[in-house]
Design a protein that fits this description.
Number of domains: 4
Shape: globular
Domain Cytochrome c: 30-128
Signal peptide: 1-21
Keywords: Heme, Iron, Metal-binding, Signal
InterPro entries: Cyt_c-like_dom, Cyt_c-like_dom_sf
CATH class of the largest domain: Mainly Beta
Helix content: 10-25%
Strand content: 25-35%
Protein name: Cytochrome c domain-containing protein
Distance between the termini: 76 Å
Largest sheet: 7 strands, mixed
Structural class: alpha+beta
């Protein structure tokens, strides 16, 4: 068992009192507000079940349970405040995709609609009426599977126990390799990591970082012989970070987990909670069916800067920029901003020719690291030569509760009080024909016409905007995928009856 002890350094951390905040945020209720039609059982309880109770329940990771009426009422004002933060640090549920810009179709999106936010506000300010219990939804059944956001894993691998003393300094190092026990090769559709520890949640701070000892783990899997020696190149997996949501791979790009492989890591960051804590990580893999073969391979793209960052003290709205040029057609599967304490927001932009589009902007909270997986028919499809551009927005002032001392200049580094600026999102590489086929399928699946606009696919609608009648001679020089992409099918012609079709040479 790995044990981290104190070396004369103490841990400083930020924590706020939820109970105090709840008292301050609780609204005054007037007699006029008592007549609201919004009630707990009819309107509020379904919202809590969908977006809150996975964490806010007995045995959950949240600091309070929000299951029953009596549990929820003391926090009504705080719930209104935290949900009203929408896409900024501290918002609940912890999902920060901005709804006014970029693609709006994400997998596992727990965010609240404007109507849900209005209902919470009306209920909190209208006397928190309980309503008729007959209107209540069926209670959720919280079994062990409920702790896995992506679904019950097919394989769970457990690390050895790690003990971190309450006032120990931060520690970086490696952990012993852990055999997966897998006896046959399998392709993975998602991976999720959770920490299990013996911490008394009522005895520690209210931030997620204050309730975990493993800040992050960079890891891979590696086939090993009976002596623990590697026999093949390692396979990299998404980094584990505090409060990270599951990583869901593209349906056509499952990640290979080989038989006889072990989990290895030489970059584990441990962080004290303030009290002696023992815990371990559980790594949950969900598999594709046997016989599955991936269509695509991951695209390796470096997008970010972790070397020469300079963040001035006592200054808000500082910008960081990084660029990458795609050397092949690429599908973007996820957008995952990685910043440190001063980080407040990141945007992803794509430029191709005269087309410049913001694909996504998300807020950032260093206590809740989120990856944003685009839905299948909304994943950006970008041609070779596209310039990817990320913009990070940094707030190093005392208005940012994650910054311990805003007077200090900050540079690059691994600690939370130093900085990184990276998009850790997943992408897959495509051949030219695969790119043509993906665009043709996208156009037809979404029933797009020439006057529509699809963010993140600058060439999807080109055949509709400037249609070309292909000759047999043209087709002889083209692949089937390109012909399909350029061909306007009868059902597509129905939504563009007045479009002129030019010959292949532009007659």
């Amino acid at each position: 068992m790995l044990k981290l002890t104190r070396r004369g350094l103490s841990r400083a951390f930020l924590a706020s009192s939820v109970l105090s905040a709840a008292g301050l945020m609780m609204p005054a209720v007037s007699s006029a507000q008592q007549g609201t039609d919004v009630t707990f059982h009819k309107d509020i309880e379904p919202i809590l079940q969908r977006a809150c109770q996975t964490c806010h329940r007995d045995g959950g990771v949240a600091p309070m349970s929000l299951v029953t009426y009596d549990e929820v009422v003391p926090f009504a004002g705080l719930i209104e405040y935290r949900t009203g933060l929408r896409d900024r640090a501290g918002a609940m549920p912890p999902w920060y995709a901005e709804k006014e810009v970029g693609i709006q179709h994400y997998k596992q999106d727990p965010s609240l609609s404007d109507e849900e936010l209005a209902a919470i506000s009306a209920w909190a300010r209208g006397g928190v009426p309980k309503g008729d219990v007959a209107d209540a939804p069926e209670p959720l059944n919280f079994d062990d599977a409920a702790g896995w956001s992506a679904g019950q894993p097919d394989l769970i691998v457990r690390t050895e126990d790690i003990t971190v003393e309450g006032q120990a300094p931060d520690w970086w190092g490696n952990i012993p390799s852990i055999p997966t026990g897998l006896e046959e090769d399998r392709y993975v559709k998602s991976v999720e990591i959770r920490e299990v520890n013996d911490l008394d949640l009522e005895a520690v701070g209210d931030t997620v970082g204050g309730r975990n000892i493993v800040h992050h783990m960079i890891w891979s899997t590696q086939v090993q012989d009976e002596n623990g020696q590697a026999t093949e190149r390692p396979v990299s997996w998404p980094v584990h970070e505090i409060a990270r949501n599951p990583d869901i791979f593209d349906e056509d790009a499952g990640r290979l987990l080989r038989a006889g492989s072990a989990i290895v890591s030489d970059s584990v960051h441990l962080h004290a909670t303030g009290v002696d804590t023992t815990g371990h990580l559980e790594i949950g893999f969900r598999f594709h069916p046997k016989g599955y073969e991936p269509k695509y391979q991951p695209a390796i793209i470096g997008l970010g800067n972790g070397v020469d960052i300079s963040i001035a003290g006592n200054e808000d709205n500082q910008e960081l920029h990084a660029y990458a040029v795609l050397d092949q057609p690429t599908k973007i599967v996820t957008f995952e901003p990685h910043l440190h304490a001063p980080g407040e927001r990141m945007c992803l932009e794509a430029s191709w020719g005269y087309t410049v589009e913001t694909l996504s902007c998300v807020g950032y909270d260093h206590n809740w690291v989120r990856g944003y997986a685009f839905e299948a028919d909304h994943q950006p499809l970008l041609p070779k030569g596209t310039v990817l551009h990320i913009v990070g927005y940094m707030n190093n002032t005392d208005t940012n509760p994650n910054v311990p001392d805003s007077r200090n200049w900050q540079g690059s580094g691994n600690r939370s009080v130093t900085n990184m600026f990276i998009d850790l999102g997943m992408r897959v590489a495509m051949s030219e024909d695969e790119f043509f086929q993906e665009m043709a399928d996208r156009r037809r699946n979404l029933n797009l016409g020439p006057n529509d606009h699809v963010i993140g696919c600058p060439l999807c609608l080109a055949p509709l905007v400037a249609p070309v009648e292909l000759t047999e001679e043209d087709k002889e020089e083209m692949s089937d995928a390109k012909i399909d992409y350029l061909t306007i099918k009868d059902e597509e012609k129905e939504i563009m009856p007045h479009m002129a079709v030019a010959g292949s040479e532009g007659e």
